[in-house]
């Protein structure tokens, strides 16, 4: 782990670029770090959207992790194929996905599936589907505690919705789901205070539910930035995702978090069109393009400035013209790993600086068999 060139390949000649390299030793260390932080592995519910791969799911299961979170039906199906015990689809099903979710439950009888709702219409729709299929569907109320993306505010309307869910003959009230991805202060003390403040109304809602003599709701909370705080709450399941592969975006924002970059892009210099300019074969199609520059952190190219990108190309200003040559191999950590992984059919697996395998990114599509 201390090797400055842990990322480089001894024989890169046969590896196409761009490719996404992953390092199982580092992934395992990140898994171990998550477990050591939470203390009780039963309170971990990692998100699979970052890597969408059965091998990494299997590594976690071998480490005792059996609860997972996902964002799509194919990701949920992948977890079913892996025989995961408990899967939360953290995306309220709408349109055809409501029936697809029911088919998922029916296909994988040994996996417990649940999903999110934030309104009475969806509760009633899923209740009708459950009745028609003679099953019970497990649901979590999706809580909006300040991100304003999805969910319902933790107020009296949420209390009424939870009561209606609990009273429905064909639905099971699992608890409250709280994603606070908007809390990203780089100062961990301030970020923790922000997290606690945003979480207080959730605890009040939980207490109000308990006063109705309804079984105490479980809580799934947070993502990677707030994982260090939610993982200490004894009655909360923490659900980080980026922690498995990490990236330069979170690495820069949260340097105090002890996770290792475990996914690296291999790229080559495609052209040197003019003095001080390098062009790499790393365009929009190969890396998440939604972030401002820099979109990658070069591990072996100092003093460079990323200035433009198109579908196949990344253009970089560089002030040392004596080193780079056309065809030279370079390595970089993505700024945002989750949508970057989704651009690749396979992950190129590296151990001891050599390629040992290729892992399919199975759940990168919107439809598999369901």
Care to describe what's here?
Belongs to the DSD1 family. This is D-serine deaminase, pyridoxal phosphate-dependent. Keywords: Lyase. InterPro entries: Ala_racemase_N (IPR001608), D-amino_acid_metab_enzyme (IPR051466), D-ser_dehydrat-like_dom (IPR026956), D-ser_dehydrat-like_sf (IPR042208), PLP-binding_barrel (IPR029066). Helix 4 links the parallel strand 3 and strand 4. This protein folds into 2 domains: 111 residues, D-serine dehydratase-like domain (Lyase, Ornithine Decarboxylase, Chain A, domain 1, Beta Barrel), CATH 2.40.37; 217 residues, TIM Barrel, CATH 3.20.20. The chain has 10 helices and 16 strands. The protein is elongated. Strands 1, 9, 10, 11, 12, 13, 14, 15 and 16 form a 9-stranded mixed β-sheet that branches. The protein has a 7-stranded parallel β-sheet with strand order 2-3-4-5-6-7-8. With 370 residues, it is of the alpha/beta class. Helix 3 packs parallel to helix 4. The two termini are 41 Å apart. Helices cover 29% and strands 23% of the residues.
Question: What's the quick description here?
Answer:
With 370 residues, the chain is of the alpha/beta class. The chain is built from ten helices and 16 strands.
How would you describe this structure in keywords?
single chain, 370 residues, alpha/beta, Lyase, Ornithine Decarboxylase, Chain A, domain 1, TIM Barrel, 9-stranded mixed sheet, 7-stranded parallel sheet, 10 helices, 16 strands
Q: Helicity level, as a percent range?
A: 25-40%
Superfamily (CATH H level) name of the largest domain? Alanine racemase
Q: Which structural class should the secondary elements be placed in?
A: alpha/beta
Tell me the number of helical segments per DSSP (H or I, 4 or more residues long). Answer: 10
The figure for the number of domains is 2
The separation of the N and C termini measures 41 Å
- Give the topology string: H per helix, E per strand: EHHEHEHEHEHEHEHEHEEEEEEHEE
Q: At the first level of CATH, what is the class of the largest domain? A: Alpha Beta
Q: Over all CA atoms, what is the radius of gyration?
A: 22 Å
User: Averaged pLDDT, please?
Assistant: 96
C-alpha geometry: elongated
Any idea of the CATH topology of the largest domain?
TIM Barrel
**Which sheet architecture does the biggest sheet show?**
9 strands, mixed
CATH architecture of the largest domain: Alpha-Beta Barrel
Strand content: 15-25%
List the uncertain runs.
none
Domain D-serine dehydratase-like: 262-351
Organism: Maribacter sedimenticola
InterPro entries: Ala_racemase_N, D-amino_acid_metab_enzyme, D-ser_dehydrat-like_dom, D-ser_dehydrat-like_sf, PLP-binding_barrel
Keywords: Lyase
């Amino acid at each position: 782990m201390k090797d400055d060139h842990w990322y480089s390949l001894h024989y890169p000649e046969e590896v196409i670029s761009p490719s996404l390299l992953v390092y199982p030793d580092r992934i395992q260390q990140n898994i171990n770090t998550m477990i050591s932080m939470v203390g009780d592995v039963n309170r971990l519910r990692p998100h699979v959207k970052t890597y969408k791969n059965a091998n990494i799911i299997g590594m976690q299961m071998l480490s005792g992790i059996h609860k997972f979170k996902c964002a799509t039906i194919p990701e949920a199906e992948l977890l079913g194929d892996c025989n995961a015990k408990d899967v939360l689809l953290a995306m309220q099903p709408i349109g055809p996905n409501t029936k697809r979710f029911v088919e998922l439950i029916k296909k994988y009888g040994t996996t417990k599936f649940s999903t999110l709702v934030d309104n009475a219409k969806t509760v009633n729709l899923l209740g009708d589907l459950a009745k028609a299929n003679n099953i019970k569907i497990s649901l979590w109320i999706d809580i909006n505690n300040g991100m304003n993306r999805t969910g319902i505010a933790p107020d009296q309307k949420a209390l009424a919705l939870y009561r209606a869910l609990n009273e429905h003959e064909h639905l099971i009230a699992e608890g409250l789901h709280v994603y606070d991805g908007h809390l990203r202060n780089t100062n961990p003390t301030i970020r923790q205070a922000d997290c606690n403040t945003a979480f207080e109304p959730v605890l009040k809602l939980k207490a109000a539910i308990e006063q109705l003599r309804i079984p105490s709701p479980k809580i799934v909370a947070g993502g990677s930035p707030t994982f260090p705080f939610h993982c200490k709450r004894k009655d909360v399941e923490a659900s980080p995702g980026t922690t498995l592969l990490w990236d330069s975006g979170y690495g820069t924002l949260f340097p105090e978090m002890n996770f290792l970059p475990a996914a690296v892009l291999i790229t080559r210099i495609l052209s040197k069109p003019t003095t001080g300019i390098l062009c790499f074969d790393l365009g929009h199609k190969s890396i998440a393009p939604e972030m401002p520059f820099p979109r990658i952190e070069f591990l072996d190219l100092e003093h460079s400035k990323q200035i433009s990108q198109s579908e196949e190309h990344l253009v970089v200003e560089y002030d040392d013209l004596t080193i780079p040559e056309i065809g030279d191999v370079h390595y970089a950590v993505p700024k945002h790993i989750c949508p970057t992984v989704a651009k690749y059919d396979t992950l190129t697996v590296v151990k001891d600086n050599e390629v040992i395998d290729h892992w399919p990114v199975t759940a990168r599509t919107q439809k598999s068999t369901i």
